[in-house]
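Crash report, auto-generated. Payload:
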Amino acid sequence: MINVGILGATGAVGQRFVQMLAGHPWFSLQVLTASERSAGKRYADIVNWRLDVPFPEEIGDLTVSPTTVDAVKECDLVFSALPADVARGIEEEAAAAGVGVCSNASSHRMDPDVPLVIPEVNPDHLGLIDLQHERGRDGFIVTNPNCSTIMLTLALEPLRTFGFSSVQVATLQAISGAGFRGVAGMEIYDNVVPYIGGEEEKMATEPRKIMGSLNGSEIEPAPFTVSACCNRVPVIDGHTLSVWVDIDRPIDEVKEAFRSYAAPFSGLPTQPERSVEYLEQPDRPQPRLDRNRGNGMTVSVGRLREGLRFTALGHNTIRGAAGASVLNAELIYKKKYL
Amino acid sequence: MINVGILGATGAVGQRFVQMLAGHPWFSLQVLTASERSAGKRYADIVNWRLDVPFPEEIGDLTVSPTTVDAVKECDLVFSALPADVARGIEEEAAAAGVGVCSNASSHRMDPDVPLVIPEVNPDHLGLIDLQHERGRDGFIVTNPNCSTIMLTLALEPLRTFGFSSVQVATLQAISGAGFRGVAGMEIYDNVVPYIGGEEEKMATEPRKIMGSLNGSEIEPAPFTVSACCNRVPVIDGHTLSVWVDIDRPIDEVKEAFRSYAAPFSGLPTQPERSVEYLEQPDRPQPRLDRNRGNGMTVSVGRLREGLRFTALGHNTIRGAAGASVLNAELIYKKKYL
Amino acid sequence: MINVGILGATGAVGQRFVQMLAGHPWFSLQVLTASERSAGKRYADIVNWRLDVPFPEEIGDLTVSPTTVDAVKECDLVFSALPADVARGIEEEAAAAGVGVCSNASSHRMDPDVPLVIPEVNPDHLGLIDLQHERGRDGFIVTNPNCSTIMLTLALEPLRTFGFSSVQVATLQAISGAGFRGVAGMEIYDNVVPYIGGEEEKMATEPRKIMGSLNGSEIEPAPFTVSACCNRVPVIDGHTLSVWVDIDRPIDEVKEAFRSYAAPFSGLPTQPERSVEYLEQPDRPQPRLDRNRGNGMTVSVGRLREGLRFTALGHNTIRGAAGASVLNAELIYKKKYL
Amino acid sequence: MINVGILGATGAVGQRFVQMLAGHPWFSLQVLTASERSAGKRYADIVNWRLDVPFPEEIGDLTVSPTTVDAVKECDLVFSALPADVARGIEEEAAAAGVGVCSNASSHRMDPDVPLVIPEVNPDHLGLIDLQHERGRDGFIVTNPNCSTIMLTLALEPLRTFGFSSVQVATLQAISGAGFRGVAGMEIYDNVVPYIGGEEEKMATEPRKIMGSLNGSEIEPAPFTVSACCNRVPVIDGHTLSVWVDIDRPIDEVKEAFRSYAAPFSGLPTQPERSVEYLEQPDRPQPRLDRNRGNGMTVSVGRLREGLRFTALGHNTIRGAAGASVLNAELIYKKKYL
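Recovered output after restart:
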């Protein structure tokens, strides 16, 4: 078993990490960090468990550590659910101390030698880990993309063979994407907020890196543009995307690409039966009904029609955050980087 | 005073017509029609008033008529809030009987000799009324567009001067657009439905007719395409649109076009101070906060940025339905077609 | 394995029955009935699956039967998810034909010889099955209570030892309680509806029968009154109850009764670890966080304080409907009435 | 015109004060206070206007002051929308400096010489102002009750003639009652929170003071008890109450008391046509449809039935907060305490 920890284990993403790592067949959860005032207490006593799945009682007895490199330096691997501003320094320190860091934070995503990975899309980018080692890092940092970027990029992956140069996407993003207290009830109830800070910029840059080519020590960004309009909607979990892509092929041929898509690997514990699933009903996918497909790890696609337009949907705190990091870690382990 | 009636006065749009015509300075509401089983009763006794504005008590005493041409043939003008399948026949009969019909139904919108009008955009299309008279119709039919089309087209009007050929729009549409019982609570709560029957087709065709040129007796559709992705979201009133349009001009110049836009007429009672209002805050417009601008008759625009992308928003049952018809009727009256 | 069927398998409660019976260790689901126009088709082809759990594919191939006694007469047991008006006749016919009927419908709940059962509260009432047999019924009818009644009565059961004569309860009931299309989005969003037809009457009578004494062939209603105020609130699943009961004992003693409560039986597959669970946090139970405790079969209680007041909560379509019937059937089977 | 100010003008209640005082016929709004970092700026530049009514442009030009006694000492009257902990000191200082204070804060509500007033219920309690003067306060402090207390007490006022000794009430309270950021979206969406800190205690004590008798310099609390269960529900504005009261009279007689109730004064600008309105429909009042009756100043009552049970509803930030204070101020002015 690999000893793992979670940096920032009490927030919305941190709790999802706990849920996904409790009982994990490869990873043994040993360390949970939180703010200074929670340190030294039982996790069960300080966490305000807000998920609608049962609290994993066996994790509750862990003693919470402060969010420092000392707390995690004995781990083989840590998952980071820290906010970007806090994450930058501590993730670097942990990696320097020999720890593998799988981070959901945005701080290092665009660093040239840090892989930004969706296992189904760019597993080869993990090769940058070697570069990090060469440059003197004992451990490594691997990041997963922004939640909306993951849904978009995974939905585009089956279409890569057709080629495309321009993507437009309007998002309808869930409340949980902003953390437990990020969106006030008065802000979002009976309302739409057509703005999410930094989100459109991430969607413009991250997919190009992920679908880019690793040439030696450099990633050449993929040659397409993404223009995004990001909206927050009154939905608890599940980001819905209306996507246009400039592919000029018959609908049926493109639909078949979705239907026949299979992940380029198998056997990872958190991997869903289908990473991308095409739903045939005319009014699907829908967040309340489809976000939990594949235990929240499947991106559902539907409504492909002339344009070329389609709808994509995924669970933002599972496939779009904690689950993304855990799946990355499983791939890293399988590829023997640990 | 012009004697007016409402065809289908008990539904979501019918009630908005009642609200907007009660106390109207030019129009005197005399006739309300509903289903056979309500006929003969007081309106107050059969309407299940569901608006969050007070019931206009003075209208409550009107005796409801059945939805037949006999009921409205003494009116100068009737507003139609009927469903499309019922509307077609009775609107034609009423127009044949010399009544002016302002319809929110979709049945006749694309008829070549029926104007599809947004007063600020194509007031000249009312010239088709003369054509209807020449062809033997004593009265006339004038239609207003689909709710989402109105928000989009009115938001595009200030940009007409720049020229454009391609529009993409993702809608986030309110529940009230489907009528009082059109969307079940279980369908839409904590959910998004990425499909609204017929809506994308209407958005593809209606704006081109509205912004088209009336050449003699024919309307030449405007030479642009509209590709829409329509979504239902958990919002009571107010449609939000994420819009892309292929205008290659500096942002400030386009923004100034929005800011300086003024309607080409004035003095209509239902006309808002600003038909299109550009909001400067980075996170606006929002349906709960902005749908009631201009008493629900203003289309709010914001977030103009490179792309060219922006957000537009309007009240779907006021500017997008009943208010649209009433404003059309006011223009018709002012232009002396009555 | 016992062969079972579901009367009315496509609605909100019918789908929950399918979910709970798919893969059941004792019951083999063989028959699904629906309206005439679905008969003869594959269940997967006609059901509009609206639950947020995956569709059980192995059930999808069953051919749907019309809702007639012929369709179910080969079953050992049928579960009824029919509306009350349809249920009355067909349930009687099925029971006459030798089938055991476990019904969620209200039609027969107050029949003197029909047990109205919550397994934890009045398992002995199943003795009325013998009376039904004596009176010539080859099969039997056993009913479960109304959803709100179940939450209330199960929460009162640990307090039975203290005695009480007066209960007041305000309910905050979920949308799903009215079926998939029972509550319109426009009715309930940003709203409360302080009226649910027939609900307060059921809460006044059903708990008294359930907690009553079976004396020979008659049930003597328990000597307390229930005064209910029933409200519908914008929650998908999970009924919350504010309860007052006239027990004059120290809070700690009553709290201990909740904490130490254990069901009077064990080993039923659908039985939760704890039928009643007392939550210690000051702001619990809450429907989104607690409705799925015990796979939706646990009634959560909290906030016990002077008055005597407390909050109770349960999943209305699981513990309050389909799960209630399935648990009844398991008890019936274990007690060898099948 | 009376010069007035608002202490804490940027929050949910502060903005309602601005809305209600803009254009007030008796009061001229001169001073707005906010936190230190907003001081010196235009109100329009610092307020994040979150109400769904238009921003009163004429107020936007006022320069914001810091929340100190100096800022308001030239006012005849100030309205306090401060949080309780901040309010206590500054309200006392302002009153000492000769200013009349109408406070929505809870700090001074239970002070023996401070009137806790609902104009329709206990206008005579304003006599305590004289007592405050005698004790050396140049100005005065008058408070209005907690929002839920106001709905309850105003609904009980028409029943005072019958006498009662025991009231039980379950509340379904709106999100806005906790301020703009008081309730997170993740907390309340698809959820109920059965706990609101301090609310049940306020409902137990405040109604007894309000309906108590002023004997000389003391208020004798009314001899009844209130037992409350307070719940937060996903509603933007409008508190709904399920109420039991131990009155043993025929329903029709009690209903008539509601129907014939009239406020004991008239001519106050903010006073609604009916302070208490009995709604005859079986499923009313409902927050979305009835909260704006009487411009948000009417308490609606309905569903009176045996028990004695009924439903009451009012707008929590208008009748339950800002409007309550403004109506108090109008009564104070009319009674010449200013």
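Post-recovery validation: The two ends of chain D are 11 Å apart (CA to CA).
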